[in-house]
Amino acid sequence: MIVTVTLNTALGVRYQARQVAWDATNQVSGVSYHAAGRGVAVARVLHTFGHEVIAAGLAGGSAGEMIRADLARSGIPADFTAIGRESRRLLEVRDGASGRRLRFSEPGPYITTEELGRFAADYRRWLAGATAVVLCGSLPAGMPPEIYATLATYAEEAGVPVVLDAGGPALRQAAARRPALVIPDPGRLPGGPGAPGNLDMPGGLDMPGKPDVPGGPDVAGGPGSRAGPDPRALVAAGAGAVALLSGDAVRAVTAAGQWQATLPARTGPCWPRDVLVAGLVPGVLLGWSWQDRLRHAVALGASASAEGEVDLAAYEQLVGEVRVDPPG
Fold first, then answer.
1. pLDDT (0 to 100) of residue 110
2. Which of 8, 54, 103, 258 is least enclosed by beta carbons within 10 angstroms?
3. CA angle 146, 244, 237 (to 5 degrees)
4. What is the pLDDT of residue 188?
5. Distance of CA 48 to the CA centre of its chain
6. Number of C-alpha atoms within 13 angstroms, CB side, residue 195?
7. Domain ranges in the chain?
8. What angle do CA 103, 90, 148 make, to 5 degrees?
């Protein structure tokens, strides 16, 4: 069973409007609701391919109930630790005339020490039956940046491989805990939106039985940097491998070598990051070669819609077109 952990779970709300105008009342022609957050999206893709998966994390309020209900309708098992405050919402407005989209992301709810302790107990329970853990997404208010390092340590103690998709302090802290695969997110940098450490809150939280987590090496870009972390430094710090995602390529960096996968004859919009992350998980479980891992991830990303829905027929066609070479 693959456990995907979303600490900042969200309720996605999509508004469809015939035409969007500023400083005016815009009529909505359609609205839909869905469970969101990066780990949830990864769980959807893995479920599509028949993997046994459970979507876990934190959820609260009426938004949390709608998140659970949507996953139940999709047939995706979910087990979220309940919190007292309302889960955040992600609002997307689509302009039918231009096809453009406008997105609004609410800040995550504040997580108390007691809620964090209950989550830690639930997480250890999930590890007992897990074959892999995927830790990804932003952190809600009140969540210490070393949380992913702590969760990775718990998984290491249980013999469960970890796929980590994070950035900023959370990435630096967790890289030394020997995750099987690290996928840096340069969009999540210290002091950025949703980043911990810039919140008006009391001192750091503690998880019962939390291992002592060192600060970790300086592997990420400094505040305001968009260069992203050095993948070789992440491998040297303890990560089994690093995958770098761009709009039309996936690059893998390991101690044994580097590879880059592309679709040379195809152009189009950027592939959904959540789908690319999901595409890299099976190779960790099944021990695929890096060439096969990258072919699977790139074909998956290229066959997905902007909403992350995968066209399986398109995937079967594209997987043979992916080219894997040493990076230029």
1. 95
2. 103
3. 45
4. 52
5. 17
6. 19
7. 241-328
8. 115
How far are the Cα atoms of 55, 186, 202, 248 from residue 14, in angstroms, in the given order?
Answer: 21, 26, 35, 26
Q: How far apart are CA 197 and CA 234, in angstroms?
A: 22
Encoded tokens for 150: 């702590």
Residue at 257: amino acid letter = G
CB-based contacts of 170: which residues, under 8 Å, 6+ apart?
A: 139, 145, 146, 147, 148, 149, 188, 196
pLDDT digits (tens, 9 = 90+) for 195-210: 333 222 223 334 545 5
Cβ-contact 207, 117 below 8 angstroms:
yes
In degrees, rounded to 5, the angle at the alpha carbon of residue 52 between the alpha carbons of residues 50 and 56 is 125
Name the one residue in this structure whose structure tokens are 């810039």. 198
Closest CA to 137 of 69, 234, 55, 20: 55
Note the pLDDT of residue 266. 65
Q: Please check the confidence at residue 214 and state whether its pLDDT lies above 70.
A: no
Contact 125, 156 (CB under 8 A): no
Instruction: Give DSSP secondary structure letters for 101-167.
Output: EEEEEPPPPP--HHHHHHHHHHHHHHHTT-SEEEEES---TT--TTHHHHHHHHHHHTT--EEEEE-
pLDDT at 207: 54
How far, in whole angstroms, is CA 113 from its chain's centroid? 23
- pLDDT for residue 56: 97
For 40-59, the pLDDT digits (tens) are: 999 999 999 999 999 999 99
Reported as a single tens digit per residue, the pLDDT across 164-205 is 999 888 888 888 899 999 999 876 543 333 333 322 222 333
- Name residue 252's beta-bridge partners: 243, 259
Q: What's 247's DSSP letter?
A: S
* pLDDT confidence band for 249 (50 / 70 / 90): confident
Among 243, 232, 238, residue whose Cα is nearest residue 186: 243
- Which pair of tokens denotes residue 294? 């990258």
Q: Helix (H) and strand (E) counts for the chain?
A: 9, 14
In the Cβ-directed half-sphere of 225, how many Cα atoms lie within 13 Å? 15
